[in-house]
Amino acid sequence: MPRRSILSAAEREQLLALPESPEEFIRQYTFSEADLSLIHQHRGVANRLGFAVQLCYLRFPGVSLAVEQLPASSLLAFVATQLKISVTEWAVYGQREQTRREHLLELQAAFSIQTFGLPHYRAAVPWLAEVARQTDKGVVLVQALIGHLRHQGVLLPAVTVLERLSAEALTRANRWLYQTLTEDLTSETRQALENLLTRREGSTLTWLAWLRQAPAAPTSRQMLEHLARLAAWQQLGLPADLARRVHQNRLRKIAREGGQMTPADLAKFEPVRRLATLVALALEGTATVLDELLDLHDRIVGKVFNAAKHKHQQQFQASGKAINQQVRLFGRIGQALLTARATGTDPFAAIESVLPWEEFTASVGEAQQLAQPADFDFLHRVGEHYATLRRYAPAFLAALPLRAAPAAKRLLAALDVLRELNTTGARKLPADAPTAFISKRWQKLVLTDQGLDRRYYELCALAELKNALRSGDMWVLGSRQFKDFEEYLVPTEPFAALLQAGELPLAVEPNGERYLQQRLAHLTQQLETVNRLAAAGELPDASLTAAGLKIMPLDAAVPDAAQALIEQAARQLPHVKITDLLLEVDEWTGFSRHFTHLRTGAPTRDPALLLTTLLADGLNLGLTKMAASCPGSTHAKLSWLQAWYIRDDTYSLALAELVNAQLRHPFAAHWGDGTTSSSDGQRFRAGGRAESTGHINPKYGAEPGRLFYTHVSDQYAPFSSQVINVGVRDATYVLDGLLYHESDLRIAEHYTDTAGFTDHLFAVMPLLSYRFAPRIRDLSDTKLYMPPGSPAYEALQPLLGGTLNVRHVLAHWEEILRLATSIKQGTVTASLMLRKLGSYPRQNGLAVALRELGRIERSLFILDWLQSVDLRRRVQVGLNKGEARNALARAVFFHRLGEIRDRGFEQQRYRASGLNLLTAAIVLWNTVYLQRAVQALRAHGHNVDEALLPYLSPLGWEHINLTGDYSWRTKRAPGKFQPLRPLSRS
């Protein structure tokens, strides 16, 4: 029997707790007419009260009330109120042990409730083992078991029994998992897997460590080295369908655990477990290398195009003086020819009057050399970088198991032709080589008078491959990020069943015609209203005329009284070291308990060492410098703790603990109720070893960087953070933060700036219960779209952009619902699908339908924006909170000059997560002490106006010492607050 505990102390307490929310409490414990009839059959008010209370406990949480156990006071009061009985009657009932036992047996008989016994135990183990094949999280397994027993009408046993049963099911599932991963392996494959733990010849690294290395830079050399890694993974000879036989959650967990272990650690496992761990590492490693190869190709092609464009611009700039001279010269010649024609004189003599004929002939030749292509395109310069792509292209195409949708079949055929040429060594393209994939822009270079140009044909095919992979028109077998579009979605049969049963997890009418009819009717009404207001000049703080749209800026000034309160409160906040702040916040919330051991699930025995590691991420100090700055810690200790305790999921749970504490704090209600939020990206430069992994976006300059994209609630709590490519539009990641956070926030309205919106996002947000409200720059250039058959809205003409294609939306309505359902259920991330749908000009029918649906929602939003000053103010306030939080993040993330210097993407994510956790802790600490400061002001006779409290902000950091030695010794007694600074006499 497994000995280790699978639940924490906090999880045990919560498992059988009564409902917390009032709504759930009422739902579980409100009696029906049948219940009341049964209750009132008992003589005596005490008996009726006791019988009813026992009924409540049997129903939820599904346990019997022990003879010596007192019911919860809240439940007792709720039941007594329903029965119109005094709660004091329980004292009478509680003394009658025999009566309580008889009532329990009566209730079990009346409601067919069974007592848990050995037969139930034996039946539950195999059932739960099936669940454990999908997840090994103890609390999830126990909760599933509780739900299963409740559904069967079985009383829940003690938590220790539930835990023991779950542990046994998990052991069975693990054995099945190890057997499934290893049973079909050949002896050669088994030996090859064992060899992964041996050192490479001439290297200090094992084969496994070398295979798991990430590429350093987007270069041909790195591409070839990574292709060698892919070949090594593929040569293991694992069965092709092995990854599909087990749940991906368990596979990734085994791989993540194995990745943290040394060969010596793995050698201690029993053979089947060690082999299964190596199989999981191989499957995950193959998928990772494939994705990294495709990303490298994408970046190399982008780099080649950027270099060609830069050369094109440089050449034009360098020739600027000569071009200007030629233009001036031909201007003089043209004027001379016009004069000659007007006067009837010899045109050739007119030219020679400007300059000798020999010089004129030479100037024509010089002009031809200076002239750029007619379309001023830089594409011809891409050919100068052919060698860069050619160096790895043959091996790259040979290694990729490519597949294509009908839209990309011709491109796949072209790639097959190139593969054949690479295999045979032939240089000339066959006359019948596919050309339908060649865009008009490439045709002038590929299709020549001498036939197909091999160099530009291959460059075009490789560039189109990048685009097709992005859009999903092509995919790679075994990849995670570039799979078949269909594999990301909920399977068609389960989706059809949900649709038929009316159980889609969406916030819309599933009938497309009815839904569009409602939205278009609303759009028509709004168009008429705004047209009337605009014609009468009655738009609030806005005007729409033939000259365009003008909206008055909002007044952002802070009242003098509010500014005085801000300064008074800030002067009282205690000076605190960042270490003391974290200790105090952890004492309030216990957020550190969520950082559990990857293998055992136990919290760390050294919380100070854990907080030190988190601080190294949040301050961007790094483990080496943090070890030198924190007495008692070493790099080895911090590195070990980070490897085993710090992961994306533990960071998410710890952050949720802080966000939930902020949500529950009464003072935070002055800033909002937690139903609105904003998101914004913050760029950090990529320097040192990370410079080659960063991306360049001209918006931020010529230096490579990464973007931390953060969601902030209206209570200033940063509840999500993602590391994204600076070249990808922010809007791609808006939904990820709203959908995949772990906190109790229930966001209803979300704000972004201009970079945070697209028509696709406008379409999907309402389907998932969110109101989308971006602040759109140059709103006057953003067009409104009308329903078919709309009249001419004269006053809106400057904003009108055309008529909606409603038929296209209806034709793809079920596909839209299936996509939204898939995003909601988490079978695919919103960012991945939005990136695919919006990445390629030749968009598929679903993308076009989403665009049309988004135009409806965007038009409705703009019309609302024109009418509502309150909406504009809400958006501005929300975005200001996010921008202010970015200022705090910049101040906290100050080490290493605020640069990202970690080459691995996982480490970069930890930096972002650590920074977000640290800012959330500062926000919560400031909130608590701002409340104390306001209370102190009132206690000293200051009249603090409630209306001014929303102007206070928990984002200040001047009183927090972020530098120096990071010591965890504190003079503050546990449970005591830091003393406020004394009020100034002024």
Automatic annotation (TrEMBL):
Q: Where is this region: Disordered?
A: 674-696
Tell me where in this chain the Tn3 transposase DDE domain is found: 580-966
UniProt xrefs under Pfam families: DDE_Tnp_Tn3, DUF4158
Lineage, top-rank taxon, reads Bacteria
Instruction: Please list the residue ranges annotated as the DUF4158 domain.
Output: 6-169
UniProt keyword DNA-binding present: yes
Q: Tell me yes or no: is Transit peptide among this UniProt entry's keywords.
A: no
Q: Which UniProt keywords apply?
A: DNA recombination, DNA-binding, Transposition
Family membership, please give it. Belongs to the transposase 7 family.
Protein name per the record: Tn3 family transposase
Q: Which organism is it from?
A: Hymenobacter endophyticus
Give the lineage: Bacteria, Pseudomonadati, Bacteroidota, Cytophagia, Cytophagales
